[in-house]
Specification:
- This protein is mostly helical and about 120 residues long.
- It is about 70% helix and about 5% strand.
- The protein is built from five helices and two strands.
- It has a two-stranded antiparallel sheet with strand order 1-2.
- The longest helix has about 40 residues.
Length: about 120
């Protein structure tokens, strides 16, 4: 797939995808002879993982480390590194749960504000 199709499928901008490549977060699987980026289905899956991390406020470095650890777990040759990668991902999971809880609290406060404001207007 070319970058436009990937952007449409993932609801991301071309700029975001290019930026992620520039910072080393995600590399397309290949390029055409003309230099156009080519993405595989596995790349789209990675993009969707990264996209789901963004609202939780993870940094590019944290997202990159997570992607490396996920790749390590998928690599049957890197069995000796699986335990360390799993440990880091377990820690990331706990962090993600905590961040989600904070977002949930913020959403509850936003709902309360909307309800109070609606009552004031009525």
């Amino acid at each position: 797939m070319q970058i436009g199709e990937v952007a449409a499928r993932t609801e991301l901008s071309l700029r975001s995808l290019r930026h992620w490549e520039d910072v080393g977060l995600l590399r397309p699987s290949g390029r055409t002879e003309g230099g156009f980026r080519l993405y595989a289905e596995a790349d789209v899956e990675k993009i969707l993982v990264i996209r789901r991390m963004k609202p939780l406020g993870f940094t590019l470095e944290q997202m990159s480390a997570a992607m490396r650890d996920i790749e390590t777990l998928r690599d049957p040759i890197a069995v000796d590194q699986h335990a360390v990668a799993r440990e880091r991902l377990d820690s990331l999971l706990a962090d993600a749960v905590g961040r989600r809880e904070k977002l949930e609290q913020q959403l509850a406060m936003a709902d309360e504000f909307i309800l109070q404001l609606s009552r004031q207007i009525s």
